[in-house]
Design a protein that fits this description.
Layout lengths: L2 H9 L2 H6 L1 H11 L1 H16 L9 H13 L11 E13 L5 E13 L1 H10 L3 E10 L3 E5 L4 E4 L5 H6 L2 E10 L4 E7 H11 L1 H9 L5 H4 L1 H17 L4 H9 L2 E3 L5 E3 L21 H10 L1
Antiparallel strand pairs: 1-2, 3-6, 4-5, 6-7, 8-9
Helix pairs in contact: 3-4, 6-11
């Protein structure tokens, strides 16, 4: 990113940026003339409803939105298939003296929700059934950690059930070829996972903040984690699922390589959205695969 690009972002709003000829022509070439204006309107609306996004670079917002479109996921706050997440990144730019310097830049990162994972999995045609849900107190009757067999008994009274505390999270699938897999994590296990892989969640716990989705919507983040674990380790991944998995909560460095937001040293800014959460340690898993 050149220095003048950073300066332009500070002066130019997202709507003006998307309406420039070069950017609009790029959008039309990817999306088509018919849907381009609706796409632009949805991006502008997303930024207007989240003040933190207005501080992000326009290009990063556009990139995240185009990724969502390439996965054919609707960009709707109501459907919540994916999100734009503000993140404090660092970029190398050239200053007025021709020297390369590092500057802080806030960028928007693509984050897939558990609903998005369900959508992509079902769309692949490989899954007959797939779901993830919270397990309430009294519903888990037995568990064999060796055979990974579970016995649950759901609370039938929905009003009573919603008032019971969540004790764990369950996910399962049945594929069209008959293969089945299920996993269960206790609430304590999920909390330890969140502390390990989310810098902002640890900061929230230490300072009493609510900057992380793990803090503001723990159950939704937990369900997403369960689906990611289940699909990536035991499921069939379509090209769309693989693309979503690799790009979920990732930013590009100056060389265009994807960096996963695993234990980012920068603290989140109080009052802004989640900063630098990683859902299931994908960065660590990728590092391990490369070392094997």
């Amino acid at each position: 990113m050149e220095k003048n690009e950073v300066q332009v972002h500070k002066k130019q709003g997202i709507n003006a940026f998307l309406q420039t000829d070069a950017v609009k022509n790029n959008i039309v070439s990817v999306i088509g003339e018919k849907d381009s204006q609706r796409f632009i309107s949805s991006v502008v609306s997303a930024v207007q409803t989240n003040p933190s996004l207005a501080e992000c670079t326009n290009q990063s917002i556009l990139s995240a939105a185009l990724l969502g479109h390439s996965l054919k996921l609707p960009q709707s706050p109501q459907l919540q298939m994916f999100y734009f997440v503000p993140f404090n990144n660092k970029k190398k730019v050239t200053d007025e003296n021709g020297r390369e310097v590092e500057v802080k830049v806030k960028e928007a990162v693509f984050q897939l929700s558990y609903r998005g994972y369900l959508q992509l999995a079902m769309r692949s045609g490989q899954y007959h059934k797939i779901n993830a849900c919270e397990i309430r107190e009294g519903e888990l009757k037995s568990y064999n950690p060796i055979t990974e067999e579970y016995v649950f008994e759901a609370i039938k009274n929905f009003e009573k059930r919603k008032d019971l505390p969540v004790v764990g999270y369950y996910a399962y699938f049945e594929m069209t070829n008959g293969y089945k897999k299920e996993i269960y994590w206790s609430k304590e296990q999920m909390e330890e996972h969140a502390k390990r892989y989310s810098a902002s969640y640890r900061t929230d716990l230490q300072k009493g903040w609510k900057t992380s989705y793990w803090t503001s919507d723990f159950d939704s983040m937990a369900l997403k984690t369960m689906l990611r674990q289940l699909i990536s380790k035991w499921g069939m991944m379509s090209v769309e699922l693989e693309t979503a998995y690799k790009n979920d909560m990732a930013v590009e460095d100056d060389s265009g390589n994807l960096l996963y937001l695993d234990n980012v040293p920068d603290e989140p800014v109080k009052g802004t959205d989640v900063m630098g959460d990683v859902i299931d340690g994908v960065a660590s898993e990728i590092k391990e695969e490369k070392n094997e």
